[in-house]
């Protein structure tokens, strides 16, 4: 973890509310060093701009296909679960030690420990990727995973005290009373081209008087919002005021409402109190700004030790942040406002090697392991778990999937591999696959832990096929054939009119033989439909048509149901089944055969010097036997009906591409130099089904 933590990252994060008062001299890399690093980062799929010159010079041709996100966002707006009144929308500002880390690369990367990926995405509405760059574009790995989970992904426009040429932002031409801003058009085009959903505008430096005017900045923001269109989002950060001063208001007020209105949303600083939130709500209502578009900042790091002269403070004033982040979320939920959580990767930065445990404590309120430690030196007293105010208790839960489509194969952002592949991952036994994280089930904490039998699930990526393991434990010895236990897995909102079909693959070999019945269930208003699971060796396919007798009925929930006793000793855990995938789609799409092929596979040597690489490139062809663009399954502007491609050689997987090209592993290329290698490509659709295969023998120079 040490490589993630640089002194400049610690001194200058967005969450540090004092940095504008003490602008540090730029003692970092030289412009030439930055240029070289930017070229190297490009090979990882990263794109960003350090200067206004770079931004103004950008064209769509200045981009490799693997720098673009290919996954369209599953549309779930205004489709939160019906049982979530009084819950807050949640926005995450992902400020993780400077960001653009190797594990976020489009190339699967070996890691010693798991890093931040966020496994609670059904409780997240907006995700902002933040780095100390002028223009920060989210890595396509993040965008693909977030879009798969229905989350909006925003980049950051950041003008810091040391930023040169900031006046370029407001340069414009006039046509009568109308102003036209070239950079507004450029920023909108960048968002559309790279496939993310808008911008956070964070201006931390006053403009020179010769270009400044609040109406000029407002016009820039209005144009940027209009250029992006209604499907994208623009958020103003609470720093610059209408008087051209950097002054954090910690509220929506007359000093920033002009810019907040132009953007349609605002993210406030995190040092607010009850009165500021309440007054902001009243101003929003009177100004016709939706309260859910007012995101109040919460500094997760405020719970750490801080200096006496510059204490870190967030809501609540004493003990806020960290494991009490959910206290602020609860307050905002009560008011009908939204929460903006700064630096949610705190759990991984502050608890090296224990990040997932700490994240569960913050989001679910679970207890820390006994050996938990942190740099504060008094972990268990300073960071006490707060189950009553865990984030999930007051965060709004969105439904998974879309109106007519849902698919998950339970893939996590990190996985293990066999020893034969260690050389591809720097000798590490675990690799990052951030862009592959699937829709994950809702946490099992919502169940009743005092039932006679307790059901829960856990994700297992230790084998080549990810799976969701369903387990049970006998809590009481008096359970009988009438005992019923429910384990909700996904909240849905889909028509139950018979047009859809569910297809579930699971290994049911461990089902109890005589004492109980285990079923999948589909819940609709007023009724539950059971799909009995039969025992059998190997992976079993369970299929069910989703039709309710009640006109207009909707599917609300999918889960696992147990009736009876599991027949084990009290306190003993029993594995019931392993689910490998769940697919819900229109029945018509199940009956459609693939009409695609992979063509023109070839090797290309690109770049020079440190950026030289060997790329496998290909195209695909649609043979027109099905109108895949209208079949209600997601499709990509870049890869069409294909979600991704697996690259194999000699039965060994070399990589997974979300584009129509892939950089080959350098060690593999060096080892096979001068040889002819047979490559196999397997193209997979957004529903997890194989659409095309192709192989070719290609010489490596």
UniProtKB/TrEMBL annotation:
Residues 104-416 form the Cytosolic endo-beta-N-acetylglucosaminidase TIM barrel domain. Transmembrane segments: none annotated. InterPro entries: ENGase, TIM_ENGase. It comes from Cochliobolus sativus (Common root rot and spot blotch fungus). GO terms for molecular function: mannosyl-glycoprotein endo-beta-N-acetylglucosaminidase activity. Gene3D superfamilies: Glycosidases. This is Cytosolic endo-beta-N-acetylglucosaminidase TIM barrel domain-containing protein. GO terms for cellular component: cytosol. It comes from the Eukaryota. Coiled coil: none annotated.
